[in-house]
Structures are given as structure tokens and as C-alpha cells.
# Entry
Amino acid sequence: MTTDMLTVFVLLGITIVLFLSDRIRMDLVALLVVVSLALSGIITPAEAVSGFGEPVVVMIAALFVVGEGLLRTGIASATGSWLLKVGGDSETRLLLFLLPVVALLSAFMSSTGAVALLLPVVMSLSRRSGFAPPRLLMPLAFAALIGGMLTLIGTPPNLIVSGQMRSSGLEPFGFFDFTPIGFAILVVGMAYLILVARRLLPQHQATASEQESPGLRTLYTRYDLSRQLHKLEVRPGSPLAQKTPAEAALRSEYEVTVIAIARSGGWLPSLIPVLANTRMRYRDQMLVYADDAQIERLCTEQSLICLDCPASEIARLEKNAGLAEVLVPPESKLCGKTVKQVRLRERLGLSVIGIRRNQELIDLHFASTELEAGDTLLLAGSWEQIRNLNRSRDLVVLNTPPELEEVPTHGSRAPVALGILGAMLVCMTSGWLDNLSAILLAALAMILSGCVNLTEAYRSLNATSLILIAGMLPMALAMERSGALDYLVQHLVNLIGDSSPLMLCASLFLVTSVLSQFISNTATTVLVAPVALSTAQLLGVNPEPVMISVAIAASTAFATPIASPVNTLVLTAGNYRFADFARVGIPLQLLALALTLVLTPLLFPF
# Structure
């Protein structure tokens, strides 16, 4: 073993230990790897930072922009709503629909691209369903990796082993030669992910960023809103008919805030405080905020009917209306004024529906409650008005719910975004354009068409994931340049010796799978494939089952977050630890190994 080999092995070992310890952020560890490789002399400093210019890193960055376009136009939210509708309140049923979708996409396009496109959909789905993101994101990533096993173009290792067969004068693999084995692994893998892995996945509800910004449900609880939301119907003969809420003095007389009006079955798109000139009609159904006593009085005096307010209508309302928590600072001009006097409805288009003082919820009276420095107010209004809250000099925004990010800012461009997405998929699956060109064009089209603006595009880039991927890519080059990879493979061949063909497949599967946890599956396959082919020919074994075993093994990048860009994409969003991937991924690798060893000889006899 040379000094360079030893240096690479030590550096790889230290990197793994740092990842497992979780003492240092993974993206910082990746940067330390870059610096260490640059100083080692094994590769040049330029090669050490070459990962930041790798096509896969650029492709992922562009896919973040495409995904943001789907989010900002409402397509991600609509897809999440459909999945939530068919999946209901069952995590199992939801995964039964979600995993085949991502696997099918991965069979015809990059698995990284499939996950990047569905990531905003799953995060939106998680927030609305209440299922923790870690319960959905790792199964999503693993199903995408398995989906790549289904076709010849599904993943680079399949193409590499087929090309190796062709260059050796043998018949290359057909488009669907991998499908039977890949499909079996997908079915068994889905059963494992749904029935077993859910017990191994982390239970935490949200990432750190989400915990800092409470969702709507948390704000409902914090301000005790649930019991004060009511649904009222305007009966024929009611004095409220043809009056605006202001004219009817609902807020000043009854302490009732009208949140929204349903007319002919559909909620009006904005809150009543914003549309102060909206007149109520007979048969209108109003969603209002008030205590029970005031509601009873209002219904008696104004001839209204109090109806049930199901959760489904609250969910419909949340698409157009939301909440924000703000602080009254000491220098604010609002201090000492009543809620009525500050006129937030007229100034900001938002209504005060809750006040906390000294961490305690206090009774809110529209005409008499005076605001004090340090009060936290809960404001209700349209999402558009909540976005503009930062312009107020008299209030400090404490929390805007993460649901705000799901509200379309360019909803009218949804058909354009769908067209761009469809064109990108057609170009990638048909081979008209290479993947990188198709995705870059799609990202540019999203920006130029107004589906996402430049500010939103830049903010969509997940720096942690990009740095982690770019920082670890040069490790493969260092292992190859130092001879460490060749050293490992040659020792494996020597250990195999004259063993049976099945043992040959098992050994190559294991070494390929292990190597692919730390370097790219493409680099692993490039190194192992020629060795596997030569060994099979030397032993007089049909190369097809051996080469397929190598290709399948290269796609079992389940055990570490750095094994594949797919895993790295969900790492931050799911708030996973390094060990989470090993705990869930290693059993899945063993299942893939067992299925490959059983099915491959049946389909491709030795």
C-alpha cells in the first residue's frame, strides 16, 4: 500500500467518523475534505474544487429552480392536495401512491431530478397532513433510487455495464432487461419502506427552520382559536342583507370578525377586512371569529343560523387566508391606542384576532383593549397582505407560518409551468437533449416566463445540499488517482479465487454496494465493471448476470447521505442524521442483494 493510498483511506475514515458523530455540520465536513485533498498533493487544488463545476451539481441547482417554479405557481400544492385526497389520513396509503410515482419518474429520467421535482410537493403534503417530513422523504429518496433500476436509461450504472459489454464484443443489454429484477426490488422495497422502515425512521415533526416558524395549527392552539371559529348563514329577512361588515357594525357592536364569505359554494378570494365594500346577501355563509356569547347574541338579533364548521372548510380557507404573529415594539405609535383606534384593518388590510401579554392570552375587546409595548398580536388576513407586513414600521413580524411559502405568487402562470415541465421531461426521456441542457433550459424558461422571479430562484438553492455534494465528489477522483479503488477491487478478486459464479456475483455486489456509499455510483461502476467482466470471462461464466449484479449494486446507495445526490437532497429537509440512513438503508441493501442473487440466475443463467 502506497502513502497516497493510506492518506486517502485515513481521510475517508475521518470523514465517516465526523459524519457519524454529528458534531460538525455535514457541509462543513465536505469543505474540510476539499481543503484536505487540495493540501495532500494527491489531486491538484483545481481538481479539489472541481466538484462545484460538476454537471450533477449544476443540474441539481437548476432543478431547485424548476421545483420552485412548480411551488410558486401552485402546481406543487395541487399535486400535494391530490395525494392527500387519495391517501387520506393514512401514512401507509399515502406512501402507496407516492412511491410508485417517483419510481416511475426515475425509470425514465434522473432519480435526482425526480426527487428534486417532488421535494416541494412532499414538504407541502407533510405540512398539511401532519405527517413528519422524515417519515416521507427517505422513502421518497430510496424509491427513486430503486426506480432507476427499472430501465436501461434509469441510472448511469446500467448504461455503463451495457457499454462495457458492447466494447468487449458482446451483446449489450436491452431497454427492459433490468426491469424484472428492478420491479421485484421495487415491490419488496416498498413493502419494507411502508411496513418496517417506518418504525426505524426518526419521529421528529419538523426541521429546525420549521420549528422556529410555527404553522397555522400551532397558532390556532397558541391563541385558542379553534373554539372561537363559527360558521353563520344569513337567513332571508336578516338586517345584515345588503350591508357591509362595517355598516353592520359587526366588529364594534358584537366583537365579531368576519373572516370570509361563502357564496354559491365558494369562498371569496380575500378576507372581508380587505374587501370592506363587500355586501352580504341572503344565503351567504360567513366564517367568523368571536366567542360563543357574542355569536348567540348576533344570531338572535340579526336573524342568522349557526352551522357546523368542518375542518375541510378551514383547509379551503387556508389557501387564501392566513395568520401572522407580530410584536408591538416600545417605540411603536400603536402603544396606548385601542384596537379600534389603530385601524389595522384600513392600514394593513389585517384584523387583530388575538393578543398575548406577558406570555398570557388576554381578552380582546375591539373598542377598549389598549395595546402595550411587548404585546404579541395575531393578525388575520389574505396571504398577500401578510407578505406585505414587513413594510409596517410600528410592528415587528415574529412568525409567518410556513404555509405562506406554499401560497402561489404566480398562480396564473401554472399552465406555463406545466408546459415547461412537460417539455423538459420529453427532451430528457426522448434523448433530444442531454439531461443537463434540458434542465438548464427549463430553469431559464421558468424565470423568463414569470413562473418564478430571480429572488425566489436564488432563495430556492439549497446551499447545504449543493456544498455537500460538490465537496465529496473529488473524493472519488482521489481514490482513483491514488490507486485506492483499484487496490480494493484487486484484493476482492484475489479473495474470490475459483469460487462459484453465485459467490462471484455476491462478492461483486457487496464491494460495489459498499464503494457506492462513499463515492459516486458512476465512478464505482466505471472501475468495477471491467474487472467483473474480465473475472467472469476468466472463470468461463456468462457475463450477463455478473454485470447486472454490479449495476444493481451500484444503485443501492441507501446507507449514507453522501452515497447519492438523491440522499443529500432530502438530508436537510428531513433533518436526518448520518446514522438514520444506515439504520434504514442497510436492511434494504441486503434485501436487494438477496433478490438479485435469486432472480438473476433465473433470468440470465450462468
Notes: The chain has two domains: 3-209+462-603, 214-400. The beta strands are 229-234, 257-263, 266-267, 285-289, 304-307, 321-327, 351-357, 360-362, 376-382, 396-399. The radius of gyration is 29 Å.
